[in-house]
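Review this fold:
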Amino acid sequence: EAIVDSNSRITWAQAKIYIDRLALGLVELGFKKDDVIYIQMPNWAELVLLKVACEKAGVISLLIRRALRAKEVEYILKSVEAPAAVIPWKYGDRDYFEEIMGMRSNLPHLKHILICGDEAPPGAISIKEMMSVPLENKYSSTYLEKTKFNAYEVWWLAQTTGTTGLPKFCEFTICGRACSGREHSKLFRISADDIISLFAPTSGGPNMLAYFCAPVTGAKVVMSETFSSGEALRLIEQEKIT
């Protein structure tokens, strides 16, 4: 297994298929090199799959904390001129789709809204459906070699917390991720026998180490949707988190 969340258990072989389908799906939707995708999601497996798919499609991912509200969301989407936003339809007490539709008239660059979850509202694109379409049969096995980022290109925009104002953005290169993953794996002695937990939001912070280290070492990642000490202890015991 590569990724476990509250709804799914995904093997490395399955992850490869889903990532390639998402990457090719982005290409088919017309995404160009260095377009930015805004991603605001809970700790779901699709978030990690989509992040790697963006690397392969040559699309820059911008992961946003789930708690940010309309004022910050509109500011961020305008600032990076994102042609797409990836969100849940509804989660908790929020309707993320309705919020973005309410500001869409102020976002001329926003062409696509992609929805994670079992259902998508009319006018949105389902990530689940994208992962089910066998686009790998339509393209050559080397097609994504043409679109993927090279080591020194920017692949990810991180955001600051915005505690003293609206968030700012920081650029990261592929080589920075690869080096960070390698060095942290050495520091913590992570191997393919390890199981890494993601209890904090995957949009940033300490959980990024799991994303950096797991692909380098073959370690498994267990994602916790919301945090409580009891649930964390249960997952540590159940999944044998190291």
Q: What stands out?
A: The CA atoms of residues 4 and 209 lie 16 Å apart. The mean pLDDT is 91. The longest strand covers residues 154-159.
